[in-house]
Design goal:
The protein has about 300 residues and is of the alpha/beta class. The chain contains 11 helices and 14 strands. Helix content is about 45%, strand content about 20%. The strands form 4 sheets. The protein has a 7-stranded parallel beta sheet with strand order 3-2-1-4-5-6-11, sandwiched between helices. β5, α6 and β6 form a beta-alpha-beta unit. α7 packs parallel to α9 and α9 packs across α11. The longest helix has 22 residues. It is globular, with a radius of gyration of 19 Å. The chain starts with a strand and ends with a helix.
């Protein structure tokens, strides 16, 4: 099967390339970042276009390699903080690029299925229990708003033009090669062997932590599902929550130090207290999460010590 991945050079994208290429699919990528042919082949990409998700680049990819059977749309904004600092940039990366992709699919590859990565940030706050896909969206940040707008575009093209689209709302994805966010920040500071570590928030904030290697398997598995519906939304979470304090303590334990963590008690803008998935859809799929959180944290520390720089 010929598949395209937008954002194939990103954190999740690279893992998904390996997953799909390892399953025997012909994988082509488009997005930002310079990849020479050697690096592209190492990842499992048969071709790579470094550029915008627009008609010119999509047409070039199709002309060179043929139309795709499925497109995995991972390109877009990836940070709540940056979306608050530069909201229009986040809008362009997430919403405008999605609109261009959907319009190209409508006019040039209407039989292709789209699998689009969204975020649990669309749910917003005030969810003390696991969140079902049917929960009313109430995003707290431009990042969440733009992911919701992307979803609405997908629904519109599915309902109006018959495009087949599955939206996977990912929760807190972590794992090897993640060079930002909480785990990266903590490990970067543990490298200096501090006696104490100051973090924002209370430490009681709860997230549904999912290892990127499992997430790549999940996204690939979702693409194999048959459905009578042209549009569907699936929670990409495990249904199990762990607090920021759990993550910090686990990283310190695997690091091998005795660092004490102190919390400021002040939360970040756009940061809900709890985001945990109702995973009933994945249980119906019989999808199994293979990497327990403690193993994932140990693997992350091992990767950081062996590969991270600066």
């Amino acid at each position: 099967m010929r598949v395209w991945i937008t954002g194939a050079n990103g954190f999740i994208g690279r893992h998904l390339v390996r997953e799909l290429a390892g399953a025997g699919h012909a994988v082509h990528g488009i997005g930002h970042g310079a990849l020479d042919q050697t690096e592209a082949c190492r990842l499992g990409l048969q071709s790579w276009i470094n550029g915008e998700i627009d008609a010119a680049n999509l047409n070039a990819l199709a002309s060179a390699h043929g139309l795709p059977s499925k497109v995995f749309h991972l390109a877009g904004g990836s940070s709540v903080g940056l979306s608050i600092e530069r909201p229009f940039e986040d809008f362009s990366r997430t919403v405008a690029s999605s609109a261009r992709l959907l319009e190209w699919l409508r006019t040039s590859a209407a039989e292709c299925e789209l699998i689009a990565a969204s975020s649990a940030a669309v749910y917003g706050a005030d969810h003390p229990v696991p969140i079902p896909e049917s929960a009313a969206p109430a995003p707290m940040s431009p990042y969440g708003q733009h992911k919701l707008m992307m979803e609405q575009l997908c629904r519109s093209y599915a309902c109006s033009f018959g495009l087949r689209c599955t939206v996977v709302r990912l929760f807190s994805v972590y794992g090897p090669n993640l060079r930002k966010q909480l785990l990266w920040d903590i490990c970067s500071r543990l490298r200096a062997e501090p006696g104490s570590l100051d973090l924002g928030g209370t430490g009681a904030e709860v997230r549904d932590w999912t290892d990127v290697r499992d997430v790549a398997r999940l996204v690939a598995s979702v693409a194999e599902l048959s459905s009578p519906d042209s549009f569907r939304i699936i929670n990409g979470g495990s249904g199990r929550g762990a607090s920021v304090a759990d993550i910090a303590n686990g990283l310190i334990r695997h690091w091998g130090g005795n660092t004490v963590v102190c919390y400021s008690g002040v939360g970040r803008p756009g940061d809900p207290v709890s985001l945990v998935a109702d995973d009933v859809s994945l249980r119906r799929m019989k999808f199994d999460w293979q990497i327990p959180l403690d193993q994932g944290l140990a693997d992350y520390v091992a990767w950081f010590k062996g590969h991270a720089r600066g």
